[in-house]
Amino acid sequence: MADAPYLVTLALVEIDGKRALPLTGKSQSAAAAEADQPGEDGRTLALELLLRLWQRSDEGPLQRAAGEASLLLVEVPLDVMSEQLPLLKASWLAGGDTQVLLTSIQGLAQRAWTIKIAKYEPVTFVAWP
Question: So where are the chain's domains?
Answer without folding.
Answer: 5-127
